[in-house]
Design a protein that fits this description.
Blueprint: H1 7-19, H2 26-42, H3 44-55, H4 59-85, E1 88-89, E2 100-107, E3 110-114, H5 122-125, H6 128-133, E4 137-141, H7 147-160, E5 166-168, H8 173-179, E6 186-190, H9 193-204, E7 210-213, E8 218-222, H10 228-240, E9 250-255, H11 257-275, H12 291-303, E10 307-310, E11 314-315, E12 320-321, E13 324-327, E14 344-349, H13 353-361, E15 368-372, H14 376-385, E16 390-393, E17 414-415, H15 421-426, E18 428-435, H16 440-446, H17 455-465, H18 477-499
Parallel strand pairs: 3-4, 3-6, 4-5, 6-7, 8-9, 8-15, 9-14, 13-14, 15-16
Antiparallel strand pairs: 1-2, 2-18, 7-17, 10-13, 11-12
Helix pairs in contact: 2-4, 2-7, 3-4, 3-7, 10-11
Length: 502
């Protein structure tokens, strides 16, 4: 653990390590990734114990939604890092057809990753694999609201990773404020919108780019064409994991009265099947992180004018709120004006797809949008007429398992994205590179740029630089030119040999 007052030295040490060139070789990056995977494998039980202390998280959720998620991300980095690091060659125009044009992926330098408390392991270390793959040094700031997980991260990271290049800073608001005074080359923050604004404001001081993974009210639309049994199971699971404390948890449902009746019936049956007659005694439900968040959710529940169809029970001593479904919810109730971030699911009645689309578009852009429908036109309507960070049809949350899909928000739900190669590019600078030789042909193609300027030069430059679709075969022109020049030189040497006898 690094205490306040030492932070400048921590960042300076990491920057010195980065400037030494230590992080650039493929072998070094690969060794750090392998050590990170080893850390997860060797400490699974200890990590589960920490998550249990912070959130009373069930073992299955701890492993499947945090540890195994991290393992798969690191495995993906190990499997693909060499291809990610490779220079990417791009198309050329006529003037540059003899040149080499490419994108080279440069590491940014020293980056800051600020985790969140709801998935304190996954959100603190999820971006780390990509940052290592890109060749950066990393300062990790876990959330102080999940102290057991923060502590184990601070303990394990220096045991397995380079101690100068990867350091953990623990602490609360004071330490975070001081940390944000330092200059970083990128800041990756996961958390609430209000704190995200503070992070971005602090980053502006040094013109530091940021990735903000925030949240918002992720809506669900369900129509009568959906399989209601499967819809209820997938929706309820997505709402209840981590007791609703998930940034992409379904926040509210839009559907007709007919669908609402069927959905509530199915969900009532499922809650009993999954969690028993007294869900509070179930080992399969987490707890609210702390008293402040429990009180906020309790107040939202008390303020509703809707009808509590399922659940509604609360226990402040146990930080427990039952999985709750509310119908007849008004558009302007407090529960519809802020992200719920708990196991409470309001259902709002709408009569059509158009009404649902209009309802969504009048509010801030959500992190994710869920549509349960077998109708292709309905699916397409939400895809093309709404804006959200992501969209899932006929399921929820599972898109996070697809590393080839970038994950991130839009508007108030965040900026930037990550997962898989997208994390690598987030922590890389895409350096444009053009390499030219001193050949006569290349000089001829570019000579019209030189003074004295004349009208014919303007016309030739316009012709040569005009943006046009160049046939793929012309990309071989430099190689063909070299080939024919080589052949010509052979004949020239033979001709000179025949004409000049020694």
């Amino acid at each position: 653990m690094v205490s306040t007052g030492q932070l400048t030295r921590v960042v300076d040490n990491s920057r010195a390590a980065f400037l030494s060139g230590r992080t650039r070789p493929l072998a070094w990056r690969m060794s750090q990734l392998e050590n990170l995977l080893k850390m997860l494998d060797e400490n699974e039980a200890a990590i589960c114990e920490a998550l249990g202390k912070d959130l009373r998280k069930p073992k299955q959720e701890s492993i499947c939604l945090e540890i195994e998620f991290l393992r798969n991300d690191v495995r993906g980095c190990i499997n693909n890092i060499e291809s990610w690091m490779a220079d990417y060659y791009v198309e050329k125009n006529i003037v540059t057809m003899m040149d080499t044009t490419l994108i080279h992926y440069d590491p940014l330098g020293v980056v800051l990753i600020m985790g969140a408390w709801n998935y304190p392991m996954m959100l603190s270390l999820g971006p780390l694999g990509g940052a290592i793959s890109a060749g950066n040094c990393v300062i990790i700031k876990p959330s102080e609201l999940a102290p057991a997980t923060s502590s184990i991260i601070a303990t394990l990271i220096p045991r397995y990773l380079d101690q100068e290049c990867f350091q953990v800073v623990e602490g609360g608001i004071t330490e975070t404020t001081e940390l944000l005074e330092e200059r970083f080359d990128h800041i990756f923050f996961t958390g609430s919108g209000p704190v995200g604004k503070i992070v971005r404001e602090a980053a502006n001081k040094h013109l530091t780019p940021v990735t903000l993974e925030l949240g918002g009210k992720s809506p669900v639309y369900i129509d009568s064409s959906a399989d209601m049994e499967i819809t209820a199971r997938r929706l309820l699971w997505a709402k209840c994991i981590n007791l609703g404390q998930t940034c992409i948890a379904p926040d509210y449902v839009l559907c007709s009265k007919e669908v609402e009746v069927k959905l509530v019936e199915k969900m009532r049956s499922l809650i009993g099947e999954w969690y028993g007659n007294d869900p509070q005694k179930s080992p399969n439900l987490c707890r609210i992180i702390n008293n402040r968040n429990w009180e906020r959710l309790h107040n939202l529940l008390k303020s509703t004018k809707g009808k509590v169809e399922i659940g509604g029970e609360t226990d402040s001593n146990d930080l427990y709120i039952a999985p709750t479904v509310i119908t007849e919810v008004g558009f302007d109730e407090p529960i519809m004006l802020e992200e719920i971030f708990g196991p409470i699911l309001p259902i709002v009645s709408v009569k059509s797809v158009d009404e649902a689309v209009e309802f969504i578009n009048k509010r801030e852009k959500p992190l994710t949008l869920y549509v349960f429908s077998s109708d292709k036109a309905t699916q397409n309507a939400f895809k093309t007429k709404t804006s959200s960070g992501s969209m899932v049809v006929n399921d929820a949350i599972v898109h996070l398992s697809v590393e080839t899909l970038p994950f991130g928000g839009v508007g108030a739900s965040g900026m930037g994205g990550y997962h898989g190669k997208y994390t690598f590019t987030t922590f890389s600078h895409q350096k444009s590179v053009l390499v030219r030789d001193f050949s006569a042909l290349g000089e001829y193609l570019g000579e019209t740029r030189y003074p004295p300027y004349q009208d014919w030069k303007i016309k030739r430059m316009g012709l040569l630089l005009k943006n046009r679709k160049i046939p793929k075969c012309l990309s071989l022109l430099p190689y063909l030119a070299c080939f024919f020049l080589g052949v010509a030189s052979v004949f020239l040497v033979k001709l000179m040999g025949n004409n000049f006898k020694f």
